[in-house]
Q: What sequence folds into this?
């Protein structure tokens, strides 16, 4: 069950990554924003972030195939944690709660729920194996 959850989460992560890296205008339109309103620096950094997500998704799939689900789950949780720090720092620096922050929080919460589900499945599998 953990492997399935990790693969599903990786598909979501990779989809975002590909859209951010190669089709940023489509990604922006998909959340109801106007692509021409996006600052070029923000678009560039979003592309960089998309590259990170493609890498993490690929590493997660490779880890699952190698039987390293626990390590893959931890790596994804670290990504969510650093994303949470980034969100908090943006808000702490005086940024208002806008659509971008709301979308980022939704992605972050979805990520945590996904990886916690995988962790729960791993723990259940460990207790089954100990029985």
A:
């Amino acid at each position: 069950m953990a492997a399935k959850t990790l693969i599903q989460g990786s598909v979501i992560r990779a989809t975002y990554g590909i859209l951010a890296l190669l089709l940023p205008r489509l990604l922006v339109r998909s959340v109801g924003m106007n692509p021409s309103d996006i600052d070029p620096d923000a678009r560039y950094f979003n592309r960089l972030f998309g590259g990170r997500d493609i890498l993490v998704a690929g590493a997660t799939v490779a880890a699952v195939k190698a039987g390293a689900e626990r390590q893959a789950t931890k790596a994804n949780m670290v990504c969510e944690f650093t994303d949470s720090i980034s969100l908090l720092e943006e808000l702490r620096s005086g940024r208002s709660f806008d659509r971008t922050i709301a979308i980022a929080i939704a992605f972050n919460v979805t990520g945590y729920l996904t990886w916690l589900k995988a962790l729960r499945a791993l723990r259940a599998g460990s207790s089954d194996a100990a029985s």
